[in-house]
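Let us work through a complete example step by step.
Step 1: write down the sequence.
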Amino acid sequence: MSVLDIFSMANKKGFITGAARGIGKCLAEAFVDAGADLAVVDIDDEAAQKAAEEIWKKYGRKVAAIGCNVTDAADVEKMMEVFLNEFGSIDFAINNAGISTLDNAMDISESDFKKVIDVNLNGVFLTAQAAARTMKAQGKGGSIVSTASISGHIVNIPQTIANYCAAKAGVMQLTKALAVEWAQYGIRVNSVSPGYMLTELIRDASEMHPVWEAKVPLKRLGRPVDLVGAYLFLASDASIYATGSDIVVDGGYVCL
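Step 2: predict the structure and record it as tokens.
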């Protein structure tokens, strides 16, 4: 077997949540380019359909769009049913859906605090759980990769995102707990911690770029494409002995 074969996603089937835009869409394109059949999962049905069509036209592989609110267990279960009806089986799941607010901890409302925790932590659990249940039933294992963040390693400044930091730290520890619990089924669970990536949201905060860049040893903000290698590694057979791991991709930000 060629060393490149273990990084291939050929004939593997899975979903990526939050894949209608930003990091999720970039990953969806990369996974399909690497040979995967994929479901673009997003709460925005219309955007998911548009992204899926764009990726299908570009790469010619099977791509489907599935609308899903990852904070709703019943909706996640329905998403999994639709996925299996479309693809038949699952090999990988990328739990990437996430949101953030910029409220300071003194003034944030209970509902706004809970909203970020619900999407970024509870949503990750629900989609991971749905994928794992199917992987266990199939009896052939699989790979689950969740999007954590440098915000789970450090406290971001000057923005105030205590709820986001708490949620992402939770994703990292949840990843370890699930990795240990599900190892007996051949299910590997890992996470990736992106740094400041030039998604649509970060691009709009251009006044903050010099502040963040000043602390990045590589002297630039990241691009979504910079994350592709880490996710492909963890989802593919190249990481067959890796579980409970978190890969930081941040240009060295958390080293300082």
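Step 3: interpret the result. The beta strands are 13-17, 37-42, 63-67, 92-95, 142-147, 187-194, 246-249.
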